[in-house]
Amino acid sequence: MNSPRAPRRAARLILALSVGLGLGLGAGALAQSTGAVAPRTYAVKDKDGTSLPAYTIPDDTAIFRHPDAEAILYGQRLLNETRRLLPDHVGAAMNCSSCHVMQGKKPLGAPFINTYNSFPQVNPRAGREMTLEERINGCMIRSMNGKKLPADSREMQAMVAYMKWLAQDVPHGARVQIKNGSPIDMDLVPDPARGRAIYGRQCASCHGADGEGRKDARGHIVFPPLWGGESFNIGAGLARTYKAAAFIYDNMPMGVHTDGAWGEGRTLSQQDAVDVAEFFTHMPRPDFPLKDKDWPSGKKPKDARY
Ligand code: HEC
Ligand code: HEC
Questions:
Q1: How far is the CA of 297 from the centre of ligand 2 (A)?
Q2: Are 31 and 45 in the same domain?
Q3: Which terminus has fewer CB within 10 Å in the chain: N or C?
Q4: Per-residue pLDDT tens for 164-222?
Q5: How far is the CA of 163 from the centre of ligand 2 (A)?
């Protein structure tokens, strides 16, 4: 039920199976240790650059002591089990935590650590200022290929409560000094044929030969799909080659090390990540009906899909 566990257990299982059967997930990358333990405490800087007290990624057990515990826990559950709990609003076989690693607690894994404190925010894709609720709905209609939640609904407010809790005491406008993803060199030219081969070797064991992902016996998502009718639509950030490459470079494949949040890690070069991203993002996936409204003031990024 708690996201890091299930996929991690699954990853370990796949790892064990791969070793046992001699299949091998990555070229000689199995069960290496990177030797690095990710820090939990990070510096915080205010808007004007002054240092503020450090931030520590909070432990889930701290939620129970919080006066708003019920909403925070429900919000966290919604991130982990979005499809199961919101079947009328989610079109993809995807949960928020499929991309926002460990419910947004992992730097470089599309974290929510700075999210609550950085909204409202001007969104270039929309060409206007957005509230946090509107931004969440952006992922609902694109990444989840679903429908918006009312801003004042219990579900929306629970997710906001969770993000607020995750920000801890960091004041509005200040930033915890983490990166949401690695910068990827946008001059790298993608080679989708090479990407297809990498996919077969390093990704298909979990995400399926046809990118369809994998569900458990009850139909719950174990490995999310990478393309096809149950994946994110072309309006999603991850449908863009270089955004997908950043996610993959930092977080995939998982289960290739014995440490890290889920044994993930730097076994792909940036070129590998760009190639495999170009390959899978351009496989068939749902359309985004509101695409004509995006980037109303121009400045479309070069990897935009429309
Ligand atoms: C297919 C992957 C994917 C899924 C699933 C997904 N997101 Fe996102 N989300 C992203 C990416 C990628 C970004 C960052 C986009 C960017 O860099 O512009 C993002 C950005 C966000 C942001 C803005 C964060 C910030 O600090 O600026 C919020 C809030 C958010 N997502 C919430 C959600 C919620 C809630 C769900 C589930 C209902 C969800 N997302 C599902 C990929 C996803
Ligand atoms: C050992 C299993 C495993 C391997 C190998 C693996 N992944 Fe994943 N991947 C996962 C899991 C599990 C998640 C969702 C994480 C969660 O739910 O907490 C995920 C999420 C993703 C996502 C975001 C969600 C989505 O469906 O779009 C992308 C993109 C992705 N993986 C790409 C790749 C690529 C590319 C490779 C190969 C280079 C790869 N993965 C290898 C298990 C794996």
A1: 34
A2: no
A3: N
A4: 999 999 999 999 999 999 999 999 999 999 999 999 999 999 999 999 999 999 999 99
A5: 23
